Automatic annotation (TrEMBL):
The keyword DNA-binding applies. Keywords: DNA-binding. Transmembrane segments: none annotated. SUPFAM superfamilies: Homeodomain-like. Residues 11-71 form the HTH tetR-type domain. Pfam families: TetR_C_41, TetR_N. This is TetR family transcriptional regulator. It comes from Thalassospira alkalitolerans. Gene3D superfamilies: Tetracycline Repressor, domain 2.
Amino acid sequence: MAARRRQETMEENRAKLICAGRKAFGSQGFAASSMDELTASVGLTRGALYHNFGDKKGLLAAVVAQVDGEMASRARAASARAGDEWQQLLAEGTTYIAMALDPEVRRIVLLDGPAFLGDPSHWPSQNACLEATKEAVERLIAAGVMKRVDIDAAARLLCGAALNAALWVADSDDPQSALPKAVDAFSLMAEGFLVEKR
């Protein structure tokens, strides 16, 4: 009973720290966020942060995973509202790119994430997106919609293009102007995989 309660307390503390980290990193950025202020805001100590995440960078990784997971869910929801499976694949990519305009996504995932955690293509959340794209590409090739191409290569290029387009938009001096250019270029590039242009 005591072990279960201790586990629940650890999970609650972890959730509080992720919430506090998300708020601080989203508003102030990772570098400017104070660990003492962050932990105090939820009534915890630095020790709790170290215990749960190892260090501030570990907390950033947990926050990035949470926000990136929500981005993937939003992209899938947009995909589900699109027409056929090809349109769904495009909608998922273009929605992901458009999220670069969301201030929290921009700061946490697209600017601070790569700056402090390294190449996003190595993040677990990106690997989940890649697997889903591989499945979609495989179905589209089997249906004769996409050209016969290596599934892994096509999925990696599509995911990489969407991610890099989002990174470019987020880092642009004028993200609002960059977004339509990025979406148009992504769509044109993706159309190169089609058996026939639509």
